[in-house]
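Action item from last week, closing it out:
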Amino acid sequence: MTHPLSSPRYLRLLSIAGSDSGGGAGIQADLKTFSALGCYGMTALAALTAQNTRGVRAIHAVPPAFLKSQLEAVLDDIGADAVKIGMLHSPEMVEVVAWAIDTYGLKKVVLDPVMVATSGDRLMAQETVQVLVQQLFPRATLVTPNLDEASLLLGRSVDDVAALEPALAGLLALGAPAVLVKGGHLPGDVVVDLLGQADGSRQQWQSPRIATHNGHGTGCTLSSAIAVYLAQGQDLTGAVALARSYILGAISAGAGVHTGQGHGPLNHGFAPLPMAVLPA
């Protein structure tokens, strides 16, 4: 049965990322975020991990041809209003994703360059980092590195608030149209995040640090939430502001909950929204 193009539909969010068997990060965190914010989530798995709150035990990469098949299956049939890209394990995977962005004209692409897990495990080889920068930075709407990832990308330490602006400028110089440098790994009672765009605009946010061991999947969740708000029509600054508000609520709501022996997950469903249906 063919459905008319004018039929009501859901807001469609696609995550291209790795699976977290512990459920706190990766594809699982992305889907929880999409659902919590009232969107229809879809996935293209780039890797499987044997992972829990204490760390990553093993990574099994999906063959690039199968990643391409997943993307074709989803995008040929359903389409996507926004895309979040997470862990990509090889240069070939990066090239498949770049192909999909071009072939399907994907817009509103949020790239979370997942290179280091919360546990400290390295998730991406250096050769993949280079291809990621070349192929996906120019195609992304926003790149969202944490400080460990910014340091790896720039080849220098980013370890205090004063280093955020130079890091942002360096990352923009790599070809990204906009970068959100996340300062959550800095010491202190205040978390500082800095958004910069290639046109020179800057926006800084500060929020009190929430005391918790449950920070697993924070970056995945934030980037997914930004993609949702972009799909809803927010501009970049508004999308980041709303996503920060959501993630602060998710961290706060899950701060005292015990899950596993290490870094536990957020409470993604602390204030779930009903699935939004766009009018015809």
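Closing note: The chain has a mean pLDDT of 93.
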